[in-house]
Amino acid sequence: MRRCIFLLTVLTVININTYAQLYFTKNGNVNFFSKTILEDIKADNNQVLSVLNIQTGTLRFSLLNNAFHFAKAKMEDDFNENYMESNKYPKSTFNGAINDINNIDFNKDGTYKVNVTGDLMIHGVTKNITIPATISVKNGKISGSSVFNVAAKDYQIKIPTIVTNKIAENIKVTVLCDYEKK
Amino acid sequence: MQFIKFNLIVFILAFLFEKNAAQDTTNFMNQLEKETKAHKTFYTTSIFKYTRIINGHSVENLPAHVLDVRISHRFGPLSKGLYEFFGLDYSPFNVRVGFDYGITNNFMIGGGHNAYQKTYDAFFKIKILKQSSGNITMPVTISFVPTIAINMLKPEVIDPSNKPDSNSKTERLSYVLQLLVARKFSSGFALQVMPTFIYADNFSYNHFKGDLYKREIFSIGMGASQKISRRMSVNAEYYYQLPGTKASSAHNVLSVGLDIGTGGHVFQLLFTNSLGLTEKSFISETPGRWDNGDALFGFNISRVFQLKKRSH
């Protein structure tokens, strides 16, 4: 019986430990940039949710499309109404993992180049992607960043021919998150 | 026995542990999403495509620091036939050149000049309630729009038959007060009701009713919009004048139109039985009837300019 209690304690501690390995943010930043000769379009979203399990490497993102802000009000309207159809598809999500999580020592300051693989869901279309990312640890604080390209066509976002020279085919997406411990 | 019990506990705990490890991020994310949703209010956007349904106002406002240049054109009646090219050659036509500006996201001003009756008009539009869901739930959007118009016709061209007696003083100003109540029922369909009060000038139109000369007109308008593609919507608008207050020769205005948005521009192609382009004239001074072939073709063109970049 004593052994039993001992084991119970050990497993509970491990269990608590897995929870303690969870890091999150409620105000991560995702911005995108579309560059053409005619027009540069930039939009910012500062309310991105992200959860990172530093033991398993599991990484999740979730954001509301209508929380992207543009310099021109008309663009924001068009983005939600005509391109993202935010009524129909309110969220964009990423559900994946850091491939080389074991190379990162979260107890030591440092910057690590990693690859992230997972399912990116935009406009109701899910695609498996692998993208490079950077994880940095500084004074026990974990932050992540990544820059990658998204082709609107891959996610069935139709760009009418009349504006094709104003919207880039490949849109540069930048992700910046400072995580805190759960 | 104790050994079996021990193993069972180990097995159950190990199982729970495994499950936790796989589920923890998903559960935690769901929890975060729920939390943010509960604390957020989602305002319904783009109830109508544009600040006007067809002739009259929709609940939509221009965003802050956006200038909208509007050109509205109404041709002659379709019944004029091929000789007048179904009204396109016909005179008098009416054209209004107007400028609207968004001061804040919920308050806009505007004004314009109408060729018909040489009328200048000005208005402001303020949002009182916003349709929303989430933390704050509101079923409708409500806006208030007062419009003032002044008829600048030269005294010698004023039609004396429009005045109750030719000696009375000419009063050029007219006022319109409108409350707009709208709701977006689905992502494609919106409905709007507009109770309207008009105080008309005394010579643009003969507001005779028996021996009484009536300048106060009450009207209830109904507007609807149905999206047919991402960039196009079909609209309809009807203003019903309360029978006790309407001029006997005036008819209710019914308009149908197609909105085409191209990002920056909005084109509205429409058919209506009114030549007028200010609230007072199209609601209370429409002589034409659809069933007499008085319907006419018209269009509105709008181009918006962002004058000041937004900060956020």
Descriptive notes:
The complex is a heterodimer of chains A (182) and B (312). With 182 residues, chain A is of the alpha+beta class. Chain A has 2 helices and 9 strands; from the N terminus they run αββββαβββββ. In chain A, strand 2 (40-53) and strand 3 (58-64) form a beta hairpin. Chain A is elongated, with a radius of gyration of 20 Å. Chain B is built from 2 helices and 16 strands. Chain B has helices at residues 2-38, 279-284, and strands at residues 41-43, 66-77, 94-104, 107-114, 119-129, 132-134, 141-151, 173-184, 189-199, 208-209, 212-213, 216-227, 232-241, 253-261, 265-272, 296-306. The relative contact order of chain B is 0.17. The mean pLDDT of chain B is 87. Classes of the chains: A alpha+beta (182), B mainly beta (312). At the A-B interface, helix 1, strand 1, strand 2, strand 3 and strand 4 of A face helix 1 of B.
